[in-house]
Amino acid sequence: YYADVGENTWTRAYVTHLMTPNTPFLFCPYTGDIAAVGDFTHEFGHYYEMYTMLDDSCIAYDLSEVPSQALTLLFAQHAAEQPDGENQLHYSVADTVRTVRSQSFNASIELRVFALAEDEITAETIGAIGLDQSNRFGRGQQNELLAQYRWLADTAIYTDPLQKLSYATSASAALDLWLCSLEDTNAAVAAYEQLVRRNGTRLFLSN
Fold it and tell me: Which residues, in sequence order, are bridge partners of residue 206?
């Protein structure tokens, strides 16, 4: 792992798989503030899933972010029981709720664009879809040009289609798991472990 903060350190956090040695690698410059704690627990959730399922790490898209999002919420709930820890919980829950909205917005644009015929894919058509969905999701108050094209800056939309939808479905499941933890922490942790170990070929409703 790498968690140092330097003058030229990239500020984004991620987890990847190193072929040699066969192990996950976590990169997360840690500053110690609320956002950094959230980033670290999020990425550690991915790290834990990859490490646990090293030879079968193929979690299905509909829950692919649960190991990270749910761990962030479960950790934040634990932090809330410590002195001055409630802010971490408030931040993490609000951030997960925002994820449902923002990534559903991105996915709604993706689905519309991917349904176009090849000769219909133009900047004007895509922009109109972006603006329409921006208004639909209550984002119409922003600059119109930005509303049309801001989503195009996220390269994952092209390199990993429908990844954004997985963030929304996973966030919903993570919030459910967090709510369960308020009633029975051990049961919620057991469910989390089951989700981490689920095979990628299993359907959402199989769990």
Answer: none
Question: Does residue 189 carry a pLDDT above 70?
Answer: yes
Helices (H), 115-162: 123-136, 144-149, 156-159
- Measured CA angle at 83 (ends 79, 85), to 5 deg: 35
CB 66 within 8 A of CB 172: no
Q: Render pLDDT for 25-69 as a digit per residue (tens, 0 to 9).
A: 999 988 888 999 999 999 999 999 888 876 665 566 778 899 999
For CA atoms 83, 84, 87, 90, give the dihedral sign.
positive
DSSP category for residue 58: -
Unique residue bearing structure tokens 């930005």: 146
Short-list 41, 52, 34, CA closest to 3: 41
Per-residue burial over 142-160, b if 16 or more Cβ lie within 10 Å, else e, is: eeeeebbeebeeeeebeee
Conformational region of residue 193, where left means phi above 0, alpha means psi within -120 to 50, and beta covers everything else: alpha
What is the Cα–Cα distance from 31 to 12, expressed in whole angstroms?
12
| Enclosing H/E stretch for 25 | strand 23-27
CA separation for the pair 1, 17 (Å, rounded): 11
